[in-house]
Amino acid sequence: MVKHRPVFENLITEIGNMWPQRQVDEEEHKIISSALREIKIFVKGYHWCNNYLMLSFLYPPFWELIKRLSGEKWEPKLHFIYWLPFDPLQPVYFECMLALQTWQAMTVIWTNMSGDFMFCLFLSHITTQFNLLSVRIRKLIYVPVDQQLIESYPLGQYSEEYLRKNKEAVDSYTPQQWEEKHFKEITEIVLQHQALIRLSRDIENMYSLTLLVNVVNSSLVICFCGFCSVVVEKWNETAYKSFLVTALSQTWFVCWYGQKLLDSVVEKWNETAYKSFLVTALSQTWFVCWYGQKLLDSSEGVAQAVYNSGWYRASKKIRRSLMIMLHRSQKGVGVTTYGFSVISLASYSTIIKTSWSYFTLLLNFSNK
């Protein structure tokens, strides 16, 4: 963010200026409200999913400290195990290392979560602007309703709405005036379309290498977490674990003297760490790929909007401009992983297939 601060500021400014400053119609309102509702659900769901992941990893050592303070037998544990030139389980060293590893885990999870939020938020807003641009293109050219254009068709509905709002212009404009009006609107549409493509490229330049590392890392994380869930945690015991957690949590609220039972809950909780990590990794990769797919679909939707407009009623000059926009829009705008692949649901499927291949390979070695 420090390195690309001018780019971030420009993204926020330009996207903010693109939002309609006028009263929007029902179709535009539906697009905007749906996009804002989706991103709100994503932010909340992804936030709590990551916080649960963090809690599942950070909880066990602190529970041991609580047992120590209550005078019971306890076993010192740390979140992560790595080589140190001293014994980290000795007094003072243990407390310092626990605080350091807690800070490390929180920093990593919240930093990654913030980066994913920014990426998906930018793509969500650009996708919304592409969809609003498509609506504007479909309503660009007025086509009178007749035997060829039925009123129930989308273009007929747009034309009837345009006639109600601009009846005086429809009755009085000459062909030259229509051409000037359409050319002015097309110029604004083309400039906005180019700006959206440029902003998408800015996001790709900032996130491209990070997305490549994310895709490779996600494949390995999903593979190893699935392997640990099956081999270490015994995945088929999940139903009994969830039942036990529910029953014992009720006992915790009813009576403090169920502490021994609560210890077993903690033990079972610790065994679900890999599963929570697996679910989080799958959801994180899916959200990134899903918003990449939405960007592709919305950018290609501009070409469909040009085709569905009343282009055949426009002058040759206007049709030529629309034809250029049609050809440009047929190539979707997407974010790539440093040029290797486009972030989309197809790439998510590739990640899952790769992870499954690694997983089966590890499982075969484990069985041998």
TrEMBL record:
Keywords: Membrane, Olfaction, Receptor, Sensory transduction, Transducer, Transmembrane, Transmembrane helix. The keyword Methyltransferase does not apply. It is a multi-pass membrane protein. The chain crosses the membrane at residues 206-232, 332-352. GO terms for molecular function: odorant binding; olfactory receptor activity. The keyword Protein transport does not apply. GO terms for biological process: signal transduction. It is found in: Cell membrane; Membrane. It holds the Pfam family 7tm_6. GO terms for cellular component: plasma membrane. InterPro entries: 7tm6_olfct_rcpt. Its main location: membrane. Belongs to the insect chemoreceptor superfamily. Heteromeric odorant receptor channel (TC 1.A.69) family. This is Odorant receptor. It comes from Manduca sexta (Tobacco hawkmoth).
